Every structure is written in C-alpha cells, then in structure tokens.
Amino acid sequence: MALVEITPEKHGVLLDMKYATSDNFTGEPVYSQPHCYLHEEAEGLLCHAIEIADKLGYRFRIFDAFRPSEAQWKLWNHTPDPKFLADPRRGSPHSRGAAIDLTLVDCEGQDLDMGTGFDAFTPLSHHGNMEVSLNAQKNRILLMGIMTTANWDFYRNEWWHYQLFNARRLPTFSDSALPESMM
C-alpha cells in the first residue's frame, strides 16, 4: 500500500483530525474514525519537516491529511468553492495522500497564532495577507519556511495546506484502500 499511517507515537505530532469531529466548516463529522494517512513519499517529506521544526523548538498539529474520495464529495457537496476545495471530479491532492493541513505548536503544545483558524474560507487565510497581525504573518512565514525547506509546495489560499509538487501524478484513493475505514 502506498499510504502510511501518521501517529503521535511514531512521528511526534499532535493529531486534531477536524473532519472526524463537528469542529469543521460542515458543522458535522465527515469521517467516522480520526485516522491520519499520507502517501509514502509525503510521509518522508513530513519526517524531514518534523526534524526541522524540532530543531527550532516546534511540533506540528495535523488537522487533515489523506481524505478518501468519498469525503471529498461530502465536502464539495456542502461547499462547492474551487478557491478552497478541489473539485472531486479532478481529484484532490488530499485524496491522493499527497496533502496535509497543519499548524505549528510551541514547546508547551500551544498553537502559534496564524491569524485565522483552520478552514477559514476567507482572503484572511491567504499566504501574504497583510490584514492579519504581524505576529501571525511571522508565524505563517515560519511554517512556510519549514515546509518548503522540507520540499513541500504550498497552496496560496490556505496558510495550513501543503502538498507534494505535481501531486496529481498520483492516483486517488477511496476509503476501501485503507486497512480500517475512515468513513
């Protein structure tokens, strides 16, 4: 299998899988189980990013990673906005296990201020938005620096979203590809 499970024990990350809760833009759970998977290539880049963040005194809190195609349809049917969601007919980098949504946390486990929450579908979420506080701008640049140094690409509309370069070269996966269903 090309998907690898990301766990706090193996990767030293915090998991807050938003789509397994009602704390997401749909207001209801999309996943029945809060599992976190990435394509094996993306998992390797995440491990590199984890090493960089650790040397700087930070850890990651992951909000979403692999998203089964069935979940992408649920999100799209709720909010069909191509500025913030990939049309499931094209396939999402998330549905390829090639994207991750995350933030940085300090040594005490507190999220750094990024100016908006996860999945805030507004221009305030865009990289380089000068309307968020100076501290939030610095934190976004720190996150972007760590992730791009680890060879991740960023999505300009979402400070939390990183993906493999040329992610669409990978196939999409449905929930049936997992050892344990997320849906």
TrEMBL record:
<protein>
    <recommendedName>
        <fullName>D-alanyl-D-alanine dipeptidase</fullName>
        <ecNumber>3.4.13.22</ecNumber>
    </recommendedName>
</protein>
<dbReference type="GO" id="GO:0008270">
    <property type="term" value="F:zinc ion binding"/>
</dbReference>
<keyword id="KW-0479">Metal-binding</keyword>
<keyword id="KW-0482">Metalloprotease</keyword>
<comment type="similarity">
    <text>Belongs to the peptidase M15D family.</text>
</comment>
<feature type="active site" description="Proton donor/acceptor">
    <location>
        <position position="158"/>
    </location>
</feature>
<feature type="binding site">
    <location>
        <position position="94"/>
    </location>
    <ligand>
        <name>Zn(2+)</name>
    </ligand>
</feature>
<feature type="site" description="Transition state stabilizer">
    <location>
        <position position="67"/>
    </location>
</feature>
<feature type="binding site">
    <location>
        <position position="101"/>
    </location>
    <ligand>
        <name>Zn(2+)</name>
    </ligand>
</feature>
<keyword id="KW-0224">Dipeptidase</keyword>
<keyword id="KW-0961">Cell wall biogenesis/degradation</keyword>
<keyword id="KW-0378">Hydrolase</keyword>
<comment type="function">
    <text>Catalyzes hydrolysis of the D-alanyl-D-alanine dipeptide.</text>
</comment>
<dbReference type="InterPro" id="IPR000755">
    <property type="entry name" value="A_A_dipeptidase"/>
</dbReference>
<dbReference type="GO" id="GO:0006508">
    <property type="term" value="P:proteolysis"/>
</dbReference>
<keyword id="KW-0645">Protease</keyword>
<dbReference type="GO" id="GO:0071555">
    <property type="term" value="P:cell wall organization"/>
</dbReference>
<dbReference type="GO" id="GO:0008237">
    <property type="term" value="F:metallopeptidase activity"/>
</dbReference>
<dbReference type="InterPro" id="IPR009045">
    <property type="entry name" value="Zn_M74/Hedgehog-like"/>
</dbReference>
<feature type="binding site">
    <location>
        <position position="161"/>
    </location>
    <ligand>
        <name>Zn(2+)</name>
    </ligand>
</feature>
<dbReference type="GO" id="GO:0160237">
    <property type="term" value="F:D-Ala-D-Ala dipeptidase activity"/>
</dbReference>
<keyword id="KW-0862">Zinc</keyword>
<dbReference type="Pfam" id="PF01427">
    <property type="entry name" value="Peptidase_M15"/>
</dbReference>
